[in-house]
Amino acid sequence: MSELDCDVAIVGLGPSGAMLANLLGAAGVSVLVLERLPDVVPTPRAIHFDGEVMRAFQSIGLGDAVAAIARPGMEGMHFVNAAGRTLLVRRGSAGVGPHGCANNYYFHQPELERALRGGLGRYPNVQVRLGFELEAITPSGDGVMLEGRQVDAADAATQTFRARYVVGADGARSLVRKTMGSSRDDLGLHQPWLVFDVMLNPGVDLDLPRHTVQHCDPARPMTYCNVTDRRRRWEIMLMPGDDPAQLVQPDTLWKLVSRWVRPDQATLERAAIYTFHSVITQGWRKGRLLLAGDSAHQTPPFLGQGMCAGIRDAVNLAWKLAAVCRGKRRTICSIPTKPNARRTCGPSSTWRCNWAT
Ligand SMILES: Cc1cc2nc3c(=O)[nH]c(=O)nc-3n(C[C@H](O)[C@H](O)[C@H](O)COP(=O)(O)OP(=O)(O)OC[C@H]3O[C@@H](n4cnc5c(N)ncnc54)[C@H](O)[C@@H]3O)c2cc1C
User: Fold this and answer.
1) Contact 15 CB / ligand 1 (< 6 Å)
2) Residue 86 lies inside a defined structural domain of this protein
3) Judging by DSSP bridges, how do beta strands 77-81 and 86-90 pair with one another?
4) Which of 249, 276, 303 is a domain's end point?
5) Residue 93 within a domain
6) How many angstroms is it from 8 CA to the middle of ligand 1?
7) Can you give the pTM of this predicted structure?
8) Which of 54, 170, 295 maximizes ligand 1 atoms within 8 Å of its Cβ, making it the mutation to test the pocket?
């Protein structure tokens, strides 16, 4: 039996994996992160997180780095019918919320992922292997054997690592979940939506709302979002009879949003069809294998909570894993807002744990 290479191997360096790596790094746990891609996923996906998640970013010392690329969203959401009449306004909340920051933030996911990855350089105990695809997971004795190869090297040989615990932050198609054999509860939503992201051209000043709009038009439901700076998004529901291949053709795309923006006013950043799912994995831990993020659950993006849930998973897992790796049953926390307060760590006190040694 070879020696352990790390206490915790994290598969996947998306937001969930990066958050967990930062937390475990701060807790002094030895971590190996394996990520198939050479860089962050460049296409925009999540655009909203909430105040609790900003608090989590602050807890790993990255509050300022994240604030620099995020916009506090105070404007709320309007629900509008096909005739343009406002049916309902879900008011935004200005100022500081219960977490000591804004209640909502808008951002560009690749920039957030870079900020989280930037934090990992602080921890010599966190090793990251980019461009490394995990291919097989075998629990063995007091650890787990991980086999994979460097995908960006020609004829790369299989490499093997041993970790005490493995966290599958490896997204919706998770290999870790499949290895665990966990089943998934399907909550019955599988809706294809066209996600259309543009950057308004410099100097173009359109009369677009600051708030989010849910266009409740039965003929074509859509969501409009003011993301950050000049970035705007429309999410457009596919209707019976739509040809997905035709829908992503530039002519068709721009017609769908022609009420608000023309191709000479904005640059298309990405248009792609995503099928939104609502699924929950049953069994997030089996022996030394654990799940976090989209590998454990997926939710449609309408309330902007999919990634937020993954960040909360990481916060929830990190202090427990760190305690187990140190062989501690009880740990002492210090909460940043109350620097002198020290108390026994529990499920609700997940912020910035300074692990008792
Ligand atoms: C259109 C859209 C809009 C969204 N809007 C929001 C929003 O506003 N707010 C919100 O909170 N959420 C939103 N989400 C959801 C959010 O993007 C995801 O929940 C989030 O990216 C999940 O993060 P993750 O780290 O769990 O997984 P991922 O981001 O999928 O990362 C998984 C990583 O694991 C790697 N990986 C997978 N398999 C292997 C392997 N075998 N070996 C090595 N590496 C591997 C992948 O390369 C990837 O980098 C949206 C999603 C979409 C599609």
Assistant:
1) yes
2) no
3) antiparallel
4) 276
5) no
6) 20
7) 0.91
8) 170
- CA 314 to ligand 1 center in whole angstroms: 13
Does 11 sit in the ligand 1 pocket, CB within 6 Å?
yes
- CA–centroid distance, 63 to ligand 1, in Å, is 21
Q: What is the mean pLDDT of the chain?
A: 91
Distance between Cα 15 and ligand 1 center (Å): 7
Q: Which atom of ligand 1 is nearest to 172's Cα?
A: 30
Residue 267, domain extent: 190-276
Measured from the CB, is residue 25 less than 6 Å from ligand 1? no
Q: What percent of the chain has pLDDT over 90?
A: 86
Looking at the CA of residue 310, tell me the nearest atom of ligand 1. 26
Task: Name the token pair of 329.
Answer: 């049953």
The CATH number covering residue 217 comes to 3.30.9.10
111-170: pLDDT as tens digits: 999 999 999 999 999 999 999 999 999 998 899 999 999 998 878 899 999 999 999 999
Give residue 341's pLDDT.
38
Is residue 85 in a domain? no
**Are 196 and 53 contained in the same domain?**
no
Asked whether 35 and 126 are in contact (CB, 8 A), the reply is no
Does residue 18 register a pLDDT over 60? yes
Left, alpha or beta for 45 (phi > 0: left; psi -120 to 50: alpha)? alpha
Residue 40 lies in a domain: yes
**65-86 pLDDT per residue, tens:** 999 999 999 899 999 999 999 9
Q: How far is the CA of 170 from the centre of ligand 1 (A)?
A: 8
Q: Do both 124 and 212 map to the same domain?
A: no
Residue pLDDT, tens place only, 166-211: 999 999 999 999 999 999 999 999 999 999 999 999 999 999 999 9
31 lines ligand 1 (CB under 6 A): no
